Each structure stands twice: as C-alpha cells, then as structure tokens.
Amino acid sequence: MAGRPAHVEMIHDAVGLARLVERLSAAECVVIDTESNSFHRFPDNICLVQIAAENRAWVIDPLEFRPGEIAPLGDLLANPGIEKVMHAAANDIRAFDKEWSFRTVNVFDTSTAAQFCGMDTLGLTAVLEEALGIVIIKSRSLQRADWTLRPLSDAALQYAVDDVRHLQSLRHALGARLAELGRTEWAAEEFRRLEDVRYRPPDPPEVAFLSTKGSRDLTPQALAVLREIYIFRHNEGLRRGVPPFRVLSDAALTEIAQAGDADLFTLPGVPDSVLRRLGKPLTQARDRGLQAAPVTRQRPAAASNGLEGRPTREQMARLKTLKAWRADRAERLRLNPALIWPMQSLERLAREPASLEAGMRNGSHSVREWQYREFGALLEDLLRAETQS
Known about the structure:
This protein is α/β, with parallel strands linked by helices and about 400 residues long. The chain is about 55% helix and about 10% strand. β5, α3 and β6 form a beta-alpha-beta unit.
C-alpha cells in the first residue's frame, strides 16, 4: 500500500484550524474543495474540506469539530483579499452556505474559466488533462465513497488531495489563456456572480413528488398514489438516514402508482428485498393514495421567460434568426452558444425587438454586462434589420 500523501496535514480541532487560517491570511490565493456523503446519508453533510497553498495541502475533518469551532474556515472564505480557486465552485459554495451559513467571496472557478477557454468537457480530470497534460486516475469506488467513515484510508486521502493539488497551476494556465483570448473580464463577471449563490432548501415531499421521472404520464389518481408513497419513501429515508433513492427508486415509485391495487409482490420493478422489509407500510401508503382525491397538476401561469400566449409566425421566424445568429457567433468564438446570449432574452426579443436596452436597464433579461458590451450592438443591428424588412 502506498504511504500517506506527502505534504498533507490533517486538521482535527479548532486550534489546528485557527493556526491554519492565520498562516493562510497572507496568501494571495488558496485552493478549496470538499467531499460530502450525499450518496450514502440523508440529510447529507460536508465530511472533508481540502485546502492547498504554498505547495502544501491540508485536510480539515469537520466531523471532529464541535458546533462553532469551524468558524475560522468561514473567516477564510469571506476574506476578500484571498482568491479562492475552486472547480465547479457553485456546488461547494452552496454546501458551505447550507452547512454553516458561510459566504464565499473572491472566487476563481476553473470550470467556468475552462468554458470561456472553449473547452467542451468540464470535469476536473478532463480539464487538467487538456490544459496541463496532467492525468489523474479516479477510483470509481472512491467517487461514491461514504466519506463519513473513519479512519480515512491512504487511498481515500490521496483521492481527496488530488482534487486540490494541481488547481493552482490550472488556475494560472486558464488565466493566461483567458487573457490571450481577451475574455478575462467575461469570466470575472461570472466569478462575481458566484458570490451570490445560496443554498435553497428542496421542495417538501408533498410538492417534490411531481418532479419524479415519469410522473407526467400518470393519471390524477395515480398521482395521488405517487404522492403518498413518495412521502413514505422520504420519511423512511430520514428514519434510516439514507437517501430516499436507496430506499426505493423513482422507477419503482411510478410502477406502484400505475398499478392500482395490484399485489406489490407481482410488480417486477419493485425488489422483493424491499417488500419483505417495507411491504406492509408501503401498501398502506399506496392504499391511502387510492382513497385520496385525485391530484391535478397546476398549469404554470406563464412560461419561464414570463411571456404569455403563443408566439406569432413572425415572432417564431425572428426567434429562428436570433438563434442562428447566436449559433454562428458561438462557432466563430468556439464557445457554447449559451455563453453568447441567454435563450430567455432571445425569446423575449423575438416578441419585443425594441426591448433590449430597457431590459438591460432593469435587469430583466438575464443578460450579463459583458455580453451586452460584446454583442449588444450586433444584436441591435440584427433586430433593426429584421423589423425593417
């Protein structure tokens, strides 16, 4: 077995964390990542926080901290003088907010930067290989490890540290590429927006059941059944401390909902092992749904873009032109079209061609400032030509 990774220090207590934060207070940037147990525990929580700087790595074990002792980490995240290099930063920023109400500022997200550099595959291993030629072999078993378990194996610690070990070099490589392409400010605006990311609690099970895959094909009575067994699954997950999908899959839920009062043991998609353990309360939940009033989906008051009614033929033709313009611009710049201009704005502009400048003033079109600076004049010229033709 390989030895414990070199230059890695475990932080187990408030004293060690306070010393680490003090040491890093003069750093220009630090690399940060987390490991959670969402595949195994419900509710989930952060099990490790990895930090790298000064060619060293530290692994904070928050499971060993008493309430309030983790506070110095929040001070580090909120320090505007220290850049935090993260990959797919929104996930970790949201987790810090959920777990400890920490705010994270001055972020450089290597995933976002890779997008603006024209990369298509944005996972860390792919970005590292494309940008730096560094190949990291990720263990499939550790990708879904239960990070709650202690002690950590050397392999698990190596896996966690690999996610931060090369990020500072990656940040410099991507930063140089952004500067070369003239896109530094484009990415910087997106980084600033990450500071506003917050944790949003999921819908309660009484509402969330409507998002179950396959639920749109169910009858109103079957939806009532789905609601009851979905709530049962959620509560069983809480009772056992495991994610609801490990109690029963979404596919099994919809199969039960469609089956009426059939014997659950006759349904091929419902595991016998689950029925032997939960057959009686699951059947009771199903029966409550069969006896409940049918559930009718509420139709949305308006589309996601806030526009009422169907577009006219002329508006649909204009939207086709706008989408073609966006696709062409994206191809020229070798970027994802979604980065060029948001579809929500294009849909509105197709109906209200003169609304671009007003929309930017009131912030209603979800258009970034950098997008308007770079492409606003071109888009206005296109819209003007469309309306005059």
